[in-house]
Give the backbone structure.
Amino acid sequence: MSTILLQNARQLLTMNDARDIYDGGALFVRDNVIEWVGNSAEIPPQYHSAERIIDASDKVILPGLVNTHHHFYQTLTRALAPDSGLFDWLKTLYPIWARMDGEAVYISTKTAMAELILSGCTTSSDHLYLFPNGSRLDDQVRAAQEIGMRFHAARGSMSLGESDGGLPPDSVVESEAAILADCVRVIEQFHDPNPQSMVRVVVAPCSPFSVTPDLMRESAELARSYNVTLHTHIAETVDEEAFCLETFGYRPAAYAEHLGWVGDNVWWAHSIHVDDAEIDLMARTQTGAAHCPCSNMRLASGIAPVRKMIDKRVPVGLGVDGSASNDGSNMLNEARQALLLQRVLGNPQGLTGEEALWLATRGGASVLRRDDIGSLEVGKSADFIAFDLNQLAYTGAQHDPMAALVFCAPQQVDLSVINGRIVVEDGELRTLDLRPHIERHNQISQKLING
């Protein structure tokens, strides 16, 4: 049994329902669960004998950030097709991704996770939807277990190739029977529904333009039979909307509803091009949204109506999205961009700093259907992070540590604890030797890009 006492925090942001904030905050962890939270002056005497005592002076503490949408493998192909919209960008990159193998998936997963962890993320979903050259979801799960990240592994799929009217080349699609069989395999092998679980599996056909209606329906039925969640891309671009109207006779959100892809076990990536009635549908059914501001701007996809979604109580979290459409994996930066992008619409209160952090913590937890992460409360998972306020970027912002995190230039964490395990300490990732890893990652990337 291991114990950790963190004390003397400049500020501790609980992100609980009451939005409690403790100046001089402290928390106590036993194994992988938070046992006590409060002021350092009120620490119960028995907790002073913890095996590990962390002095958090000059640091702001908050729950680990939650990433609700990503494509880890895309760390291998950053900064390609830099001036393209989604469809042209995909057509450029699909042939390159088709050259990946299991090692490429494994290495790229660790790269993305390392970036995420250093930016404050402790739980991430990833949407892997192509499996060339023997690669499997297993490659990602192994990477997550080694680096120590809490992981929602979305078993994606593409079955509608170019020859059948879809967008992806035939070389990267799978048969629907093989897709469904592998979904069953990975659920039965890896999915852990218990509190504090480190791996959960998600059923995740890629998008309306890369799978058939039958696969969407059968995937939903399969997921519900195993009581796992569902994820896909919906309403990302106007091109997608035109495709859905022409091919299926529905707007993307209506098409999703038609196929049974709404409900409190479903979340959509992006949800940019949704009207008021469709937002009402999401609210009524508690269908979640992964808001990905950086990627949406990079691909000129549009601005998701996040303010309306929040006001109507749609579950909304943040997503870094693919590291070839964002070109980075920084969750704190995503929170900052979410705030700024909503204000571009003309309302200086379009999103507040606290709301941006709420989306990155509690919002993400709600989208992933987790009630054991996202806040620092008794009984919750011991996932917490610390940012050192004594950094150049935070000078002049000491009067409001919460605002400093969101409004100032994003910095790396000083400390990250995931499931009660110290993963980052003194700003250094303890679970991966970065130098040789970066070298191998770049070797694989160059081989893929050069063909």
